[in-house]
Amino acid sequence: MINPIVDFLEKRKQKPLKEAKKPVAEIEQEFQIAVWGASAANRAAQLSLVSHPGKFSHPDARITPVLFAGEYAADGYVRSGNAKSGQDVVGNAAALDVYAFLSVVLDDGRSVLEHFEANSAVLKALLAVGEETFAAWRTAFLQIKAVDGGAKTHTNVKQVYFPVAEGYHLLSVLYPSGLMTEHRERLRQMKFSEATKAAREARRKELFHEQGFADMTGLLTLHFGGTKPQNISKLNSNNGGEAWLMQCFPPELQQHYLHLPKADFFQWLRWDADWSEIITALHKLLLTDYNNVEIRQYRQRRIEQLFDWVMGRAVLLQQQPAGWSGAEGFRLPAAQRFWLDAAYRESNPAPEQWQETITRSMSEWVVTSYKRFRKKQGDAVSLGEIEVKAFQAEMLGYAREHEEFLL
């Protein structure tokens, strides 16, 4: 039967053995349960188990450790108690190995810390130390959950005045790092799990996938702790100092206001996640040296997807009140006015080769946007007049097959 604690210490001593800064015999002695356990017990007071660390507000914030365990209630709120989340640890980052020890899970599924709390005979047997030593260690290790009398906040923690009947309460707003971590993990699984990767690959290859995948766009990344995230908390260190925020804008049930293009439709366009995905796929295609029927068909599909993406934005303008392009300050090219504004189209003859003009502008915009999009990576494939004409030919052919797209 494997002793999980011995296994834990065996793994931890591999690094000092590899570094070889001390004699092997000395390292082996340091990682005996009795020796290492005594050292860890002495350092346990340097750590505090918390649910809401204060250092997320400011690295120098010193507050009373808050260890809150909310009860479940069917109230519809995402809060402590209603959502599964772990606890966090703050204190001396050099003593985090103590928390790693207390987190070791024994054969019954409970952690070492839980066994200390239960004064477990199983843990006593695994540690193989005397009654007095075990009792002393238990007292020392359980200090990680101790809370000093009285609640103390800090000037570096954000404060909120909360009104009550005859005055106000001054609240200190703290970050629920356990919930933040659980939230990040769920998003990570949604975006990067093996199942999601398989579904994305199927979509890229235009294949059916039974499960499909969901995505969450518009995430904002917050950074805590700079180059030393471990100085904020253990969970913050595990997360690389990052927390992800979702958009909380109200739903857009209808288009209340659309900023209209005044000079050029294509300069008005703004990239989004769908456009980025299409242009990235096209970029990968441009990097290949192959030129067969399958590659050409794949490239054509991507060009058609870009065309459809542009058409989706054009439809928004075609649905605007007739005559919008003739308002003061608007100077769209004639071909674009004929394409996008019904009033102009009804009162003016079609500009010569207006469809060719539109698809030419569209092709030039695709090439220019591609170069800008890949500029940061510095790996853009060189595209010029030949590619512009090739893209235009494909777009024009696609448009003539689906004339309803342009008008």
TrEMBL record:
It comes from the Bacteria. This is Type I-F CRISPR-associated protein Csy1. Pfam families: Cas_Csy1. The gene is csy1.
